[in-house]
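Researcher: Sequence of GNAT family N-acetyltransferase follows. Predict its structure.
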Amino acid sequence: MGLRIAAFAPQHEANVLALSMRSWAPVFEKLRPVVQPCVYETFYPDGWQVRQAADIRQFLAIARQNTWLAVDGDAVLGRVGIRLHPADRMGEIHIIAVDLAHQRRGIASALMNHAMMQMRGTGMRIVMVETGDDPGHAGSRATYERAGFQRWPVACYFLEL
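Model: Prediction complete. Tokens:
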């Protein structure tokens, strides 16, 4: 594989959206049964795909310069987007996905390493990534823990009104 990390360009948007939907489908399939129905329906009233696509488009519209792709030839295999929080000197891996057909090949690690290098270059001292504690996100948690991330004790509660 001739994997390289490249800057996002507008012509990649359709590929980024498609690979994101493919990579997140199994995550949402496992998430839905373990989340309170009122929470799931509030976050995803038109389906998770509609919300995720809108979130990705919005991020790319405001932060495309902070988005990188894992590519092999013309194929987009994964992507990462970061947010910078200068007041805290903290970078955030905001959005990451690797196409299902290319997972477990070190692509997420390569994307995270590139993102962290970019953050260091802007003076950030720490990096944060958030993910779910549900079965669908088990692979994500394992990737972050292998990379040396340590879990921060946070609790998030919901109550239907």
